Amino acid sequence: MSRFIEPVTLRGEHATLEPLAREHAPALALAVRDGEIHRLWYTGVAAPERMEEYVATALDWRERLGAMPFVVRQNATGDIVGCTRYFAVDAVNRRLEIGHTWYAKRVQRTPVNTECKLLLLTHAFETLRCIAVEFRTHWFNHASRTAIARLGAKQDGVLRNHQLGVDGAKRDTVVFSVIDGEWPAVRQHLKFQLDKPR
Question: What is the mean pLDDT of residues 34-60?
Answer without folding.
Answer: 80
